[in-house]
Design a protein that fits this description.
The complex is a heterodimer. Chain A is an all-alpha fold. Chain A is built from 3 helices and no strands. In chain B, strands 1-2 form a two-stranded antiparallel ribbon. Classes of the chains: A mainly alpha, B mainly alpha.
Chain lengths: 105, 258
């Protein structure tokens, strides 16, 4: 059975607290979308409209109903997987190199 | 050996936890695509064309650097893959700023500019911006060049040059990373203000409109710049602890500093 060192216990606890805070705060902070417009709306589009420039619909308009939600879910999952995969690759290479160095010494 | 086993177990969990967390965070904020990129149609055709022409050589330089570095060192590819994912995720994840009552997002180009160099960072930003413009209603195809120039070119070079300048003055990695992230974020919004003001001004004078846009960005981007600085410093310090050899290979650190 693996025994965690005090340092890694503190790190795990810190990570848990951070995740818990993020899970609790994010929904309340983001569900009221009208209250939290993006700077594209509140600054860029607003100023542009004052000067007669308006946005056009994108070529592939995913901003329809829950379609955008699905596309963002997909983007988040794929991006997160790629990030995690390459992080693992980078870290495993290091641990392999350390093991080889240990064997050599 | 036991620590090594624990470390391996922790890295094995990452590919599972990262996508779940990322998807969760992005989903919660997605009711509208809150972006800082210049949206489709906001810049007149000639201005959109000009920014595309200005951005093109930098993207070409990025391609050249990627081919050159990949040919010389294969271990470089996972880092580029990681940076591509980091820039894509960070630049489409809106963060609410309570004091301003708005949302915006960091850019991530400071991290990639420091770690893989500004050329490849620009290329990574260009790909991320293209995917966002095509499928996420985030930015636009006609304004792709303008967005590459502000986020890719200015963000990457500001981050890279600031980090190198501070390191040459023997300032530690964390502080250098923080200031680089902060200035890269602010440089991006400074450039967006120039692009927008020059594109939409019509017959009105440039400077008052430029200041108006820049000042309007401040309540949101001031705290987000600090967040971007903290993220950049965190990422650099993490890699400094876990893979100092990689930072030496990428010329982020000198051999004696690792």
């Amino acid at each position: 059975m693996k025994v965690q060192s005090p340092k890694s216990k503190v790190q795990s606890f810190g990570m848990m607290l951070l995740l818990l805070a993020a899970f609790c705060i994010l929904p309340s902070a983001t569900t009221a979308s009208e209250k939290w417009p993006g700077v594209d709306e509140s600054v860029i589009e607003k100023v542009a409209k004052e000067h007669g420039q308006e946005t056009r619909k994108p070529l592939i308009n995913t901003n329809q109903g829950d379609l955008l939600l699905f596309v963002f879910l997909l983007a988040g999952a794929v991006g997160g997987f790629i990030g995690g995969y390459y992080w693992k690759t980078l870290m495993e290479k290091r641990s392999e190199e350390v093991e080889i160095q240990k064997k050599n010494t | 050996m036991q620590n090594n086993g624990m470390f391996k177990a922790q890295t094995r969990k990452l590919p599972l936890t990262l996508p779940v967390l990322t998807a969760y965070c992005i989903l919660l904020t997605v009711s509208n695509a809150h972006a800082m990129h210049v949206s489709e149609g906001l810049l007149p055709f000639h201005w959109a064309g000009l920014w595309s022409i200005l951005a093109a050589p930098f993207v070409a330089y990025g391609l050249y650097r990627l081919r050159k570095l990949s040919a010389a060192d294969l271990t470089f590819k996972p880092l580029v893959g990681l940076m591509a994912a980091v820039v894509f995720i960070i630049s489409c994840m809106p963060i609410p700023v309570p004091n301003a009552g708005t949302c915006s997002h960091p850019c991530g180009t400071a991290i990639s500019g420091i770690l893989v160099g500004p050329g490849i960072s620009i290329l990574v930003a260009a790909v991320a911006l293209l995917i966002q413009a095509l499928f996420l209603a985030h930015g636009g195809l006609s304004t792709w060049g303008a967005n590459i120039f502000s986020m890719g070119v200015m963000g990457s070079f500001a981050g890279f040059l600031t980090f190198r300048a501070l390191r040459s003055m023997k300032i530690n990695v964390a502080v250098s990373g923080f200031v680089a992230g902060l200035l890269a974020d602010w440089a991006t919004y400074f450039t967006t203000s120039i692009e927008l003001a020059s594109g939409i001004k019509g017959d009105s004078p440039f400077m008052p409109l430029f200041w108006k846009i820049l000042i309007a960005f401040i309540p949101t981007q001031l705290p987000l710049g600090i967040l971007e600085g903290a993220m950049t410093a965190g990422m650099i310090v993490l890699l400094y602890k876990k893979r100092p050899d990689l930072l030496v290979r990428m010329k982020v650190l000198k051999a004696g500093e690792a």
